[in-house]
Amino acid sequence: MSKERARRRAEREAERARQAALRAEREARLARRRERVGRVTALLPRRPVRIAVQGGIAARRRRAQNGLVAVLFFIVQVIAWLLWSSWAARFGVFVLSVLFVPLFVTLVFDRRS
Length: 113
Fold this sequence. Notes:
transmembrane, coiled coil, transmembrane helix, 113 residues, membrane, elongated, DUF3040 domain-containing protein, mainly alpha
């Protein structure tokens, strides 16, 4: 019985050692990659990156209008898919929608003011 336990313990320890070796190899590879990427990025010039979203009233209104146009476009496409099983009809609705979106935006949303 104790020989069996010792054998199983040795198997578990061997498996743990194998997992630890794999983990150490993976961590060493990641460290080498990080160091290589760090050397390359150190050579590149630093440029400020602007991520902030415009927060003015006009920008918020424009985002809302663009969202509305996108939702309406999607609804039209879903309705076309549900109504017609013909691929030609679906494609035709898609093409017409793409052509009419700028017209719709121009007529409905007066962005000059």
